[in-house]
Amino acid sequence: MLFCVNAGPAFIINIVGVSMLGSQKAGIILLSATIFSSLFVGFLTRFFEKNDEKNIAPATPKITGGVLVEAVESAIKTIVYVCGWIIVFGALRQIISDAPLPQNFKLWVDMLCEVTNGCKTASVNFPVAVCAFILGFSGFAVHAQVLPFFSSVDLKYKLFFAFRIVNGAVSAAAAQLLFHFFPCEVQVFASGAQIVPVSFSVSAYASAAAIITASLIILDLAPARKV
After folding, report:
1. How far is CA 144 from CA 16, 20, 66, 139, in A?
2. Which of 4, 18, 67, 174 is the most buried (most CB within 10 A)?
């Protein structure tokens, strides 16, 4: 939980590297930086290991005819649960972007809320190493998605958050070092025109309604803690 919450190779290389930065090599460097960061943070967790040993009886698997149905139902609920948080933070990003706040503050909120849009914002406003930080930090949307499982592993969010900061910082430092030794060109200006969506093209109430609706879905589908 402290060092295995990471973006996948396909996302980093193809989406961030090729699509956002226009360079597959940049994506490979970012992937290498995040892998190194995960290994480094994983080493740090050795010093947080608990030495209390408990005798736990091995669980006996139960194979029933409805196991496939249960698996599909659980997968659907998880997908909806994840999408609900993405909608919440997507609407929150849009509200903050239209608020009368300092531009740098709005940029960082946009980057820290959700990893995909965060990398997209970082790729056009900041050095490439900032994308590595966003990938290492993972975004608050991902934090919220894994939050219900903290109780099952006796993990506090403040420790998880601190390790996300460390993961992001190490990823950024490693990426900066790798780009120094393996420089590559990245796309700065788009080659064609892009459609820019108008903020609140419907209304501010629509964003607020999306947040409320997604919150109700999350509360309804959140994994229940078993006693």
Report:
1. 22, 25, 30, 9
2. 174
Amino acid at 69: V
DSSP string, 94-114: HHHHTSS--HHHHHHHHHHH-
Residue 42: closest CA among 11, 5, 10, 7:
5
Report DSSP state, residue 56. -
What pLDDT does 28 receive?
A: 94
CA dist., res. 56 & res. 67, Å (int):
24
- What letter would DSSP give residue 199? T
- Other beta carbons within 10 angstroms of residue 87's beta carbon come to 19
Match 């393996």 to its residue by tokens. 182
**Distance separating alpha carbons of residues 192 and 184, to the nearest angstrom:** 22
pLDDT tens digits, residue range 183-225? 887 655 444 444 444 444 445 556 666 677 767 666 666 655 5
Asked if residue 149 has pLDDT above 90, the reply is no
